[in-house]
Write a structure and sequence with these properties.
single chain; alpha+beta; two-stranded antiparallel sheet
Length: about 180
């Protein structure tokens, strides 16, 4: 006799998938968002590029003593991301986690358009820019070593590529004298 397999409804499968994603998100990297910061994205990116990929303690020191004004807002955002990580991973100690800034990016936000009076009755448009910052903090993973068999294969010199066939010599144009002979 054949066994019948019970099909699940699409909505049930979708709900199970969403629950699995939520369970996976309960541990691991933590994210913090900063919305509608009233400075240009270019100025914020200059500071964000300094801390990308850096350990959290070093990043906090960099931001604390940086003279640019977006650094104060990024420092608060980094502290928020650290707090989010400690809530998410309550079983791990913050000191032993060895956190680093995994990802940080700055997107352009809303632009407020204003008019500035200009000579001869004209007006210049002033764009007051804003930005959104997303910061992801994660713990350093131990480096996974390669198996010895793969390392041995990498050390072996690779076979040389086969040589291309030599080009045929160009044919001489025959002259009238050579054809007669």
């Amino acid at each position: 006799m054949e066994e019948t397999t019970k099909k699940t409804k699409r909505s049930v499968a979708k709900r199970a998938k969403l629950e699995a994603v939520k369970e996976a998100a309960k541990s691991g990297p933590a994210t913090a968002y900063l919305r509608d910061v009233p400075s240009s994205p270019r100025k914020m990116r200059l500071v964000a590029d300094m801390i990308r990929g850096v350990r959290v303690n070093h990043a906090l020191n960099l931001l604390k003593y940086e003279a640019k004004h977006p650094s104060q807002k990024l420092e608060k955002l980094l502290l928020s991301a650290i707090s989010n990580w400690s809530v998410k991973n309550a079983d791990q100690k913050l000191e032993e986690a060895d956190l680093f800034v995994k990802e940080i990016f700055v997107d352009g936000g809303r632009q407020l358009k204003r008019l500035r009076p200009a000579p001869q009755g004209r007006a210049h448009r002033i764009r007051k820019r804003s930005n959104h910052v997303t910061l992801v903090v994660d713990s350093m993973n131990p480096v996974v070593e390669k198996p010895k068999a793969k390392e041995a294969e990498e050390k072996k010199p690779k076979a040389k590529a086969t040589k291309k066939p030599a080009k045929k010599a160009a044919k001489k144009k025959s002259t009238k004298k050579e054809t007669k002979q």
